[in-house]
Design brief:
Blueprint lengths: L2 E3 L3 H4 L8 E2 L14 E10 L3 E2 L5 E8 L13 E7 H10 L5 E5 L2 E4 L3 H4 L4 E5 L4 E5 L7 H6 L32 E16 L5 E8 L6 E7 L14 E12 L2 E15 L20 H16 L20 E15 L2 E7 L16 E2 L6 H4 L3 E6 H8 L6 E12 L16 E6 L8 E4 L5 H14 L2 H6 L3 H7 L31 E2 L1 H6 L4 E13 L3 H4 E4 L6 E3 L3 H13 L11 E9 L2 E9 L1 H5 L6 E5 L3 H10 L2 E8 L2 E4 L7 E3 L2 E3 L22 H7 L6 E4 L1 E6 L4 E6 L3 H5 L3 H6 L1 H14 L11 E12 L5 E7 L4 E3 L9
Parallel strand pairs: 1-10, 2-3, 6-9, 13-15, 19-21, 23-24, 29-30
Antiparallel strand pairs: 3-5, 3-7, 4-5, 5-6, 7-10, 8-9, 11-12, 11-14, 12-13, 14-15, 16-17, 16-18, 16-20, 17-19, 20-21, 20-22, 24-35, 24-37, 25-26, 25-34, 27-28, 28-29, 30-31, 32-33, 35-36, 37-38, 37-39
This protein binds one DNA strand of 12 nucleotides through strand 11, strand 12, strand 13, strand 15 and strand 16.
Length: 803
DNA sequence: GGTTAGGATTGG
């Protein structure tokens, strides 16, 4: 290795070789024998990393000898050094001004800037044969040095060996020693959302644990909310840098100290490890990913998490219970100076939470349709939470912690109301204070819980018009080799809620038999009770499709055999080609069979500047297998090839992006792909941002099935399409990568339509169907049907009305 | 380079 960080030589085993002889800077001349010479100096200045030629970097720096006292002003003890290639890169990443470095294996030549900068007339040239040893002043590497170090922490020189030695050292919670400043990983077993302290900062209080099974309380003071850990639930994983170990009441606690930073991860494995942070620059490497995955595994195998107030849906609220609620904010109203009303839903039927409010005080819609109202809960939030609630945006996805359901007796009912209507109800309160982690958190749009919530409320938020507005039926029928259809008419959603149909009330109207449905006018939503007679395709992977929301085309997902051919053809095309101006090239060693081989990659200098150069790699010349292998180690991989002597994206028949196990495709028809540099972003890169930057129209994973329903009167073929995710309770994207999601779909279908057993014993389903006019063969009109609700199944008995 | 809090519910 040409670059070494000698932080604690005894510990890391890195030593400056004994055979080298120190040469004072002022004695360096063109006639010096430099074979075994080594110079030592403090880094005075460090220039930027410059991309010089196609495959190279240059970095200039100035070092000054600290321990030599120039006997006369004529003796110069500072010298320019010029580093090339990997060494320049490592120096750029690993060395800060003020660090002491030693250099060997260099050559010298005349310094072109000597007359201007008055430094040494020669400069040192360090290429791949040279060595740099860095004695970092950083406090973050080693807890012991951190305590002694008077210097504020700089993140520097943690690069020792890029692949084997971690940039940061993490202390197990069982090994914490009072007084040390440490970096730690931990699983959250208790937390409070940040709250305003009596001082200048917000305060987060949490308790974490790890494989050493020690629980440690942490207190984080930060002025800005975004600097606080983004904890959504117990079981999340936090990584904290530079926390000080203190003793309080005889117990070890951690408090943030100078240079503190934190990132948070989901405690449940989802295939990819996505750090939650607002920080533009944070270090996250392969080792971090492994650490997080080990903790995720540990959580899943150990019973480490305390029984937390379970996340509960509105329909499952128990009176007197405390619980956490994940929901969407629809409207809010000021009740008084200490209390705000939040109107929310989560897609399940709400208990009666009547709150009287003046419509003039309401922000957002003052009323909803009667059926929508039956899904809405009213929550009163007090004091500190009331203040916070006032700045919440309508439509936001929230998690409300330690919500309480208080039974309210009917004694206080309005005398004018009918007794039955004004019956007992639940009052939902978020009391003041932060005990038991009480608080409200806005969940980001991309969190798995929000994705789940969106699916659950889809049937409430999408009006019937949405179904028919999309010209997708053309595609639906083409996929099934049936006459193409196209929608024109719009259905209406005049609906009333049948209160007699307890639990099955949906925003739609008449319950009809299949026979009646076939004779009724298209353009409406109907409620049916039916059994699932059959479904196709029987093989789930055939139900998974790619959908373009721009041109509404649907296509199959290419199989690996086809993809392998595309990759192999592309890699044959290895001619030299011109690079986009921004691309910084590099090479990665890949194990290929028994031999290693190097493949080319390109990175964006902007991401590099932001401290995450490997966040997005453009890879050239790999096989499909190798690309998948690389995708396990790097967050975002975009395969590229050479096209007409220019670097270009690969054919859009193959995925344009690999993210962990996930593959993303673009629409051939709607994309205008160009290899552009990514815009500067505060947000973490995701498939949407990358697709947009590359001019790719991202294709959505969708599920498309055809079901045959039956009741006593008839059978009916219906599409399961727009609401397939809701119906099957999974996201199509998960089905594409997760065996668990696939099994869940199989289980759902098997429960509705068992392969064995009498047809009559199959469960009866309460379903909402939308019917609409489509264009049939040779311009003929034909009625089509789509499912637009989740299935609510009932035992096969009690269906006598149809049998 | 100083402060805050230091989990623990009954309350509209």
């Amino acid at each position: 290795m040409p670059f070494h960080a000698v932080v604690d030589g005894a510990r890391t085993g890195v030593q400056v070789p004994q055979h080298l002889t120190r040469i004072p800077i002022n004695l360096i001349s063109t006639s010096s024998d430099l074979t075994n010479a080594i110079v030592k100096g403090k880094v005075l200045r460090k220039g930027p990393l410059v991309s010089a030629t196609l495959h190279d970097f240059i970095l200039k720096a100035v070092i000054q000898e600290e321990d030599s006292q120039p006997s006369s002003s004529a003796q110069i003890n500072a010298i320019n050094i010029v580093l090339f290639g990997e060494l320049a890169k490592n120096f750029s990443e690993g060395v800060s001004p003020g660090d002491v470095v030693m250099a060997s294996g260099f050559t010298v030549s005349k310094s072109p800037t000597a007359s201007k900068d008055k430094l040494h007339p020669l400069h040192l040239l360090l290429s791949q044969d040279a060595n740099i040893y860095c004695f970092s002043q950083s406090s973050s590497l080693n807890p012991r040095s951190a305590v002694d170090s008077k210097r504020s922490s700089t993140v520097s020189a943690e690069v020792l060996n890029k692949t084997k030695v971690p940039k940061y050292t993490y202390t197990r919670l069982g090994d914490l020693k009072s007084g040390n400043v440490v970096n730690v990983y931990g699983v959250v077993v208790f937390f409070k959302q940040p709250f305003k302290s009596h001082g200048t900062d917000f305060c987060s209080s949490l308790k974490i644990t790890d494989q050493s099974n020690r629980n440690v309380s942490c207190t984080i003071f930060c002025e800005k909310l975004e600097q606080h850990p983004k904890i959504f639930q117990i079981g999340d994983i936090v990584r904290m840098h530079r926390v000080k170990v203190k003793l309080f009441n005889n117990a070890i606690t951690l408090v943030n100290t100078f240079g503190f930073s934190v990132i948070t991860f989901d405690g449940k494995s989802s295939g990819t490890v996505e750090p939650r942070t607002s920080s533009r620059t944070f270090h996250f490497d392969e080792q971090d990913r492994k650490t997080v995955e080990e903790l995720q595994k540990w959580i899943s195998t150990q019973n480490v998490l305390p029984a937390s107030p379970a996340s509960v849906t509105l329909s499952a609220i128990q009176p007197k219970a405390y619980f956490d609620l994940t929901c969407q904010l629809l409207a809010k109203a000021t009740i008084d100076t200490t209390c705000t009303l939040l109107r929310v839903w989560d897609g399940t039927r709400s208990p009666n939470t009547f709150v009287s409010v003046d419509p003039n005080d309401v922000e957002g819609p003052t009323s909803f349709s009667r059926e929508k109202e039956s899904f809405i809960a009213n929550i009163l939030v007090y004091d500190n939470h009331s203040m916070f609630a006032k700045q919440l945006k309508l439509g936001a996805f929230l998690r409300i912690y330690n919500l309480r359901a208080v039974p309210v007796s009917s004694k206080v009912r309005d005398i004018n109301r009918n007794q039955a209507e004004a019956g007992d109800h639940l009052a939902l309160h978020l009391h003041g204070g932060t005990s038991f982690g009480r608080g409200i958190r806005v969940l980001p749009e991309n969190s798995p819980d929000v994705e789940k919530l969106k699916r659950a409320i889809a049937f409430l938020t999408e009006d019937v018009e949405d179904f028919t507005a999309e010209p997708t039926d053309l595609e639906l029928h083409e996929v099934w080799s049936t006459p193409p259809e196209f929608l024109e008419d719009k259905a209406e959603t005049n609906s009333t809620c049948s209160t007699s149909a307890e639990g099955s009330c949906r925003p739609q109207q008449q319950q009809v038999t299949l026979s009646q449905l076939k004779q009724s006018t298209p353009g409406q939503v109907y409620h049916v009770r039916a059994q699932l007679r059959s479904y196709e395709p029987s093989k789930l992977h055939q139900a998974l499709k790619l959908f373009c929301s721009k041109c509404s085309s649907i296509q199959d997902i290419p199989d690996d055999e086809l993809l392998a051919t595309i990759f192999s053809d592309a890699s044959k095309n290895s001619e030299n080609c011109s690079l986009p101006k921004w691309a910084v090239p590099g090479r990665i060693e890949l194990p290929s069979g028994s031999t290693k081989r190097a493949v080319r990659f390109y990175v964006s200098p902007r991401l590099k500047e932001e401290g995450k150069p490997k966040e997005l790699l453009f890879i050239r010349g790999t096989t499909l297998e190798e690309t998948c292998h690389l995708a396990q180690g790097y967050k975002n991989i975009v395969p590229v090839t050479s096209s007409e002597s220019c670097l270009a994206l690969m054919d859009l028949s193959s995925p344009f992006l690999f993210r962990g196990p996930r593959r993303y495709y673009g629409c051939k028809q709607c994309s205008q792909a160009t290899l552009s540099e990514l815009p500067s972003l505060d947000k973490l890169l995701d498939e949407k941002i990358i697709a947009e930057a590359l001019g790719v129209q991202l294709l959505k994973f969708v599920l498309l099935m055809k079901l045959q329903l039956q009741d006593a009167t008839d059978t009916l073929e219906v599409f399961l399409w727009k609401h397939a995710e809701l119906f099957l309770g999974v996201s199509a994207e998960e089905v594409a990568i997760s065996q668990e999601a696939q099994s869940s779909v199989h289980a759902t279908l098997e429960s509705l339509c068992p392969t064995k057993g009498a047809v009559g014993l199959r469960p009866w389903l309460d379903l909402s169907l939308i019917s609409y006019w489509g264009d049939g063969e040779e311009g003929q009109k034909q009625t089509c049907y789509q499912i637009c609700s989740p299935p609510i199944s009932r035992p096969s008995s009690g269906q006598s009305e149809h049998t």
